[in-house]
Design a protein that fits this description.
11-stranded mixed sheet; Rossmann fold; 13 helices; alpha/beta
Length: 397
């Protein structure tokens, strides 16, 4: 009996210490990391669900306006109990209804997890929920002024999908602000110009909000976006001169060229905002034809008056650029590249983002030199990453 009990305890401990698919091997910067959640509503716009429980809630006069759950990561004094990944997961529960009951929030979180994991890998999900992060909830702000990075999530996604990058940047002296990708009248958006411009307007709202933060250096503002957010951020920069740098994390701007031509104001030759683009492993010609990829043009190659850095990351498929999704991924899907190789590529991508922002927002010469070196000189395994640099021509067409 004692042997069986010891075996059970061993199995439980082993399961609780199971290796995660995701390992972020960067070390924190000189600052502690704080995180704060703010319930915001943009009263200049509407959000009117047509059916369901929210329809009656938002019909009330005091509920009108577009809800924007806002998460802020910021440089903080060190100390305090860091959040767990589950604390970020709980944000899913009140993305469009800040007054949802605890029971409603729990249902929403469970539904999101079932969708992401297809109802599988319960032990893996449970272990990830317990894993510690870097940020401390409502930590004491670090004195000083810091550049601002607005983070635009991917298609129909969450504020925390790249919390690891947000925490990393905050530890190195950046304020990172994010809101979920939310539709016009429901949680969900569509892949059209109207919804892309809706997210671009959210970006501008968050920049306006950043002005209220005592730490924010509003002279140094960047916008990073993953996937769909990496199209909306380019639209935002095309209208907003406050945006001084762009990071597209396998951004849709590369893949939706016809949609970009519909936005007549977004002319690539007029855009002078420097861009870092992190790209997934190239698809085969057969896959491109099969999935009818849009090869009608290239917005990025038309950015002749901006410095453009295109970092191709061969271990990375599209969803690997969201650390939340790697954490919850199916281990059986890792074949040509291991989970460790994917995690290390993600880690290197975060370093490139930091150096790009340091180079263009802080005018750091060492960071610019980092970008110019071959990736292998920056610690990348041979043939894993490839950097193409397209410097601005400096004269308008």
């Amino acid at each position: 009996m004692r042997l069986i009990l010891c075996l059970v305890v061993f199995l439980i401990c082993s399961a609780s210490q199971a290796k995660s698919l995701f390992t972020f091997s960067n070390t924190p910067g000189p600052h502690g990391v704080g995180v704060r959640y703010v319930k915001q509503v943009d009263r200049t716009r509407t959000f009117t669900p047509k059916q369901g429980a929210l329809a009656s809630v938002f019909a009330k006069e005091d509920k009108r306006g577009r809800p924007l759950q806002t998460v802020i990561w910021y440089p903080a004094e060190k100390g305090g109990q860091p959040v767990r990944f589950d604390d970020y997961l709980q944000l899913v529960g009140w993305e469009t209804d800040p007054d949802a009951s605890p029971k409603e929030q729990a249902r929403t979180v469970d539904a999101w997890l079932r969708m992401v994991t297809e109802g599988k890998r319960d032990a893996q999900v449970a272990a990830e929920r317990r894993r510690g992060m870097w940020a401390v909830r409502d930590a004491v702000r670090k004195a000083g002024k810091f550049p601002v990075v607005i983070y635009a999530p991917s298609y129909n996604n969450t504020t925390f999908e790249n919390a690891d990058i947000a925490e990393y940047l905050a530890s190195h002296g950046y304020i990172v602000i994010s809101a979920p990708t939310v539709g016009l009248s429901s949680r969900w958006i569509k892949k059209d110009l109207m919804h892309a411009e809706l997210q671009a307007a959210d970006i501008r709202f968050l920049i306006d909000y950043a002005r209220t933060l005592p730490q924010a250096d509003m002279e140094q503002v960047a916008v990073a976006g993953f996937s769909w957010g990496g199209l909306a951020n380019v639209l935002a920069a095309s209208k907003d001169e406050r945006i001084k740098a762009l990071v597209c994390i396998d951004g849709a701007v590369r893949y939706y060229n016809r949609l970009m031509t519909q936005a007549s104001y977004a002319r690539p030759d007029k855009l002078r905002t420097p861009l870092l683009f992190l790209a997934q492993t190239p698809a085969s010609m057969e896959s491109t034809i099969r999935y009818k990829e849009d090869l009608s043009g290239s917005f990025i190659s038309g950015m002749v008056n901006a410095d453009v850095y295109l970092l191709t990351m061969y271990p990375m498929e599209h969803h690997h650029f969201g650390s939340a999704y790697v954490r919850l991924d199916d281990p059986a899907e890792y074949k040509e590249y291991t989970a460790d190789e994917v995690s290390f590529a993600y880690t290197l991508g975060a370093r490139y983002i930091l150096n790009f922002l340091d180079g263009y927002l802080k005018n750091d010469a060492a960071a610019r030199a980092y970008l110019a070196r071959r990736p292998v000189a920056n610690g990348a395994p041979p043939h894993a990453l490839k950097m193409d640099i397209m410097p601005a021509k400096g004269t308008p067409r």
